[in-house]
Amino acid sequence: xxxxxxxxxxxxxxxxxxxxxxxxxxxxxxxxxxxxxxxxxxxxxxxxxxxxxxxxxxxxxxxxxxxxxxxxxxxxxxxxxxxxxxxxxxxxxxxxxxxxxxxxxxxxxxxxxxxxxxxxxxxxxxxxxxxxxxxxxxxxxxxxxxxxxxxxxxxxxxxxxxxxxxxxxxxxxxxxxxxxxxxxxxxxxxxxxxxxxxxxxxxxxxxxxxxxxxxxxxxxxxxxxxxxxxxxxxxxxxxxxxxxxxxxxxxxxxxxxxxxxxxxxxxxxxxxxxxxxxxxxxxxxxxxxxxxxxxxxxxxxxxxxxxxxxxx
Length: 312
Known about the structure:
Elements: E1 8-16, H1 19-30, E2 33-37, E3 41-45, E4 55-59, E5 64-71, H2 75-87, E6 92-98, E7 106-111, E8 117-122, E9 141-149, H3 152-161, E10 166-173, E11 177-184, E12 192-196, E13 201-208, H4 212-224, E14 228-235, E15 242-247, E16 253-257, E17 271-274, H5 278-281, E18 288-289, H6 291-298
Parallel strand pairs: 1-4, 5-8, 9-12, 10-17, 13-16
Antiparallel strand pairs: 1-5, 2-3, 3-4, 6-7, 7-8, 9-13, 10-11, 11-12, 14-15, 14-18, 15-16
């Protein structure tokens, strides 16, 4: 296996108009911890993760994706990737240099083919974290991020050829064709995925729980609090991970998950799963779906952050 320049997903940056409601949702209900706040800019960490933060919230006039942050092993890998992207004609937003957000580090930013701002960094100071105890139903870390795209073939090629992601599995529908692609940058089944849609936008962000019991307890806490359950609880076929999807106050879809499949990359061959089979979507057959919320997730307006540099 060739050396990977991207190793994992660090965090996702979200701009939201209802900042106070969002901050309350993520800290008091979802289970993240605010580690820094600077007048309408909040950095939220997972107690069990060494990442300085896994969600960044910014107060804005409209909802948008500010950025996707990816990790690299070394500053040399950051430089190598930046040089490769420049040679391939990718537009850099910033040259490799010091990162000024919590934890610092060395990194740069660029636009992907859909106009998302992507950051790649190394040497970020690890945050003091701890092992979660039994029954602690809060996120351990960021699991994966899924985007809608109206340009899936080019988007997949970009992340494969330019960033080194590998295809793990695909979901298809009869008479429609392939509609969801799961991609990895480690032995974990997927760190990022793309869903065919009419626009390019955020599909959902997934947070890993300690285990199955903690996953169910967290799902129950959200339900008791009256959060909007879009789909779940259940277990997917692709990736073998559990799922409970909720909609946050701004309309972003957030997922609790656990037990994402670890692959033997030397022997793994991607599958194409037929989504029309109920067991592909939910192996357990337990998940309920809010059809209205589900349709909204795949039919969102185009993200206004495309090819727009975030202010932070």
